[in-house]
Amino acid sequence: MAQPVATQATSATEATPARQRQQGGFGQTVTGIIRMAVMWYFAMKFFSPKKPADPSQLMSNLFQKGEPLDMWLYLSDQQIFNDFGNDGALLWHETNIPYAVWGQGSSRSLSLQYTPSEALKHNGSLYAHVFFAHSGYPPDPNDSEYQPRYAFSRTHPVVVYYPKSKSGKRRSLLNSKQSEEDILDLEVKDDIQSDSKDEGSVEWISYWKPNITINLVDDFNRLVCRHINMISYLNIDLTTKNYYPIIYFNEFWLLREKLIPLNDTVKELPLHLEVGPISSTKWQFFLQIEQSFQIHRSYGSMVEGEADQLKRVFLEGNPYLLVVTMVVSVMHSLFDFLAFKNDIQFWNKNKSMEGLSAKSVVVSFISQLIVFLYLFDNDTSWMILASSGIGCCIEFWKIGKAMHIEIDRSGRIPMLRFRDRESYTKNKTKEYDDIAMKYLSYVLFFLAICFSIYSLMYEQHKSWYSWILSSLTSCVYMFGFIMMCPQLFINYKMKSVAHLPWRQMTYKFLNTIIDDLFAFVIKMPTLHRLSVFRDDVIFLIYLYQRWIYPVDKARVNEFGFGGEEDKSLVNGSANEADSNATDENSKKTN
């Protein structure tokens, strides 16, 4: 009678998961309904047809498509212009420009030479005042034929101001023509000028914009007053509550390198004028991009000049080449992330330093620290500084994995002491590492001293500290491949490469190949292009070593396990199974 009891227990046991599945299915159904309701709400919120607004709240364009317009462009040092009778201020005049019509007649251009005034050469202001009016009507409000309904205007500065570059403070530290007394006098004058000014003030330089592009936005949509995010660009008629055609001074492709600094030596300035239509979509796209650049600058994630570099890529680059560059950049970021991930995994699980160069890890940390100090001295954006700082922390963490770090509290000031691990000192690894680093340090120090002397004699620096940092950083960039050579020497002496993190090195090698591709695509100096290929030689030697050296099963791998241990376990279990089988056969025979 025990069997029915077991059957009931079994059925009860099977019923419990069934009930749980029913409860889980019900819960999943409710969750799915709630999720569908939320998705339906947001879909109706954003994609459903909106309720038509009150016609009294809609604004329309005061002009119709194709209406002929006359244009006047004045230059004045006053931000508000009223001197319409001054013929000297009138720079350009065009008639019968069809509004929002795409064709040859709707685009006009003019190139000329402008003679600056003395006030303009000394950080003076200059504004471009553009006036449009329906053909036959004047732009002057004092004219008897003036009609406010048919005239509109906009003002834009022709001169822009930027702070003086700090590179002007650089000087040759060994300039024989400038004595130390002159340098001290210059520093004293700078201190006096800085004290006379308010705290935080900087010297500004005025720049001339050589191109003025005036675009009339092709937009005839009826706009809602409270939903307009480009209200600063609209000129609204207070009587009819409608808007005039939007005038847009297009400076999206005007790079900073094209600006001309104003000073006493300037006699004439080139000026190219252009007027034409622009679509509403393109206009809003330019506005969004410029606002995005401004937000990144305010957050410190983009320094001055990076936006121009991005624009230059689109201006000078081949479209197909740009697509290839974007794809390759994504691949480079992916391989860089994978190399970083596998590097962390390798050092986190590594239990033995046998066959690995501990001194290369220390030198890598010092190099990363030098680069971080150099970036900090050159006022780099905080995002790049944060990335470099995190790299320094990771390199220091790797030192803790490669060596023992202890805190010595015997003195007044606690000091860090580094001690080699037993797996690094008990075999030939430390001996080979010392030999390789000894001879390579001679080469590295010689090159560093030679380059530092060259930089001191022929380049300009802000201070001695800046010279030391720039020299060390240049040596890291140019001669950093020497840090990888001790590992090659250890591999050669030990006749093995089984201890290396090959997965991480594979991703780095792929990144190196991508860097080689960029070396041919991107414009760069010849010496820098040649330096890109330095890592290829090292990686090819690694691959050659992997090919000629057989895999040593007895060597401890990167996870601290040896091949012979696994083999002995397998052989022991096999021998034990054979002995058990022999015993069973002997028992059956008996």
Automatic annotation (TrEMBL):
Q: Where is this region: Disordered?
A: 1-24, 564-590
Q: Where are the transmembrane segments?
A: 320-340, 360-376, 439-458, 464-485
| Bias (Polar residues) ranges | 570-583
**Mind telling me which GO cellular component terms the entry cites?**
endomembrane system; membrane
- Per the record, the domain of life is Eukaryota
| Protein family per UniProt | Belongs to the CLPTM1 family.
Q: What is this protein called?
A: Cleft lip and palate associated transmembrane protein
